[in-house]
Amino acid sequence: MSRRECAFRAATLSIVTILTAQLIQARPWTGAELQGTPQSSEPPLTAGSDCSSCHAVDHEVVGPAYSEIAKKYAGQADAAVKLAERVKEGGSGNWGNSQMPPHFEMPDAKIQEIVQWILSLKDAPAARADPSGGKKYEYTLEDGKTVTLDFPLFVEGMEKDKKVTKGVFRGYELYNSYCFRCHGTDATESELAPSLRHALEVGMTAQQFLAVAMPGREDKGMPSWAGFLSEEEMTNIYRYVKGRSVGLVAVGRPPSESE
Fold first, then answer.
1. C-alpha count within 13 angstroms, C-beta hemisphere, residue 187
2. pLDDT tens-digit series, residues 241-253
3. Burial class of residue 147, CB neighbours in 10 A (0-12, 13-18, 19+)
4. Is the pLDDT of residue 237 over 80?
5. What's the pLDDT at 129?
6. For a pLDDT cut of 90, what percent of the chain falls above it?
7. Domain 1-33+130-259 has CATH 3.40.47.10
8. Is residue 41 within 8 Å of 217, Cβ to Cβ?
9. Does 37-129 carry CATH code 1.10.3720.10?
10. How far apart (Å, rounded) are the C-alpha atoms in residues 102 and 45?
């Protein structure tokens, strides 16, 4: 076995160990917790499972918004059966090419409760097309060129000090806790996996980033992060890597607003 293969297997084993520990620590859920939950809130099971890593009530993450699913199946007598089968067996094609993992381990009773809650959102407001609200942030590079982002990279008023927001700093922490094993420390080069900085340099969006990271790529040895990292956490990782890719965040620990 080559040195590269050994290193890749060691990194994969480390990631699997982390994911297993997270699943073991997961809090058990009972259907009684769903009682009294408002329609606009996620039931505890979806909030604590891999569901919330790929879906949200009012906007697309990796998969469609729950409200859009409800609208698509509204009025169909067999809607609950179809949705339950999709949750159980997984698949792709109905909403694009992203692969939804199967949930064979999830009891049918729990799946039915989740499905009934999703279908109850048929009258909810339409899904947001742009969760960021369309606001833009402009930053100047050292060579005088400007970069426009759809999220705040630095704390307002601290752009000259390069103090990143709490979210971006959290992204740095998460990246250098998990992602660096295969993609390189500080999003630099690596022999084990593609450069994430380069992927963002050529135009990968936040939604496309999540669509790869959350389900993973089993054929390439990349594990799924759904259920371990939330949408917010993965978005923070994206924002940190984006800051690195455009040359606004340097190698090493970036200064944060708490300093």
1. 26
2. 999 999 999 999 9
3. middle
4. yes
5. 64
6. 28
7. no
8. no
9. no
10. 16
